Amino acid sequence: MAEESTPTQQIELTTDLPADLLMLIGRVTVVFGQLEYVLQLCTKRLSDLDFDTAMSDAEKLKNVHALKNRVDELFQIRSMDQGKEAEFGALIDQIEPLYRRRADVIHGLFAVEQHGRAIHQWKRDAKFAELADLANLHRDARDVMLTLNSITHPKNQ
């Protein structure tokens, strides 16, 4: 009687991944740091608080969901224009899905499979690492961050 083999995924755990892949992972990481900073900064711009107090209060919020909601609440109070409020709400609603995509990247496994191709695995879902997916995530997060920064910038108020 032959022994049944257990299927295994043959991967190499290495940080020596393709440079273009590492660059895009880095760009995604950086732009999400910028997006979080702009969200925190919005609490200052949309309130009457001084910089240190507003940033300290924003940092105390437990997660991006709470921070996003606080920024949206402050914008609604300040705007008093239903059209602008709806536009801002649509923009801010893009943040949580972006953060879910970010979690897949930041908390996922990047490795090299047995034939030398880079793979990305999140939970049990493994696929070949697609540079276009990372580039699109970077672009989408950057666009939201830049628009949010522009809308709430004091010169545009």
Walk me through what this model shows:
The chain has 157 residues and is an alpha+beta fold. The chain contains six helices and four strands, in the order βαααααβββα. The chain has a four-stranded antiparallel β-sheet with strand order 1-2-3-4, with helices on one face. α1 packs across α3, α1 runs parallel beside α6 and α5 packs across α6. The N terminus is likely disordered.
Features:
single chain, about 160 residues, alpha+beta
What topology emerges from the helices and strands here?
Layout: E1 11-12, H1 19-45, H2 51-60, H3 64-79, H4 82-92, H5 95-106, E2 109-113, E3 118-122, E4 125-128, H6 131-152
Instruction: Describe the global form.
Output: elongated
> What quaternary form is this?
single chain
User: CA-to-CA gap between the ends?
Assistant: 77 Å
Number of strands: 4
Q: List the helices and strands in order.
A: EHHHHHEEEH
Structure in a nutshell:
Helix content is 62%, strand content 10%.
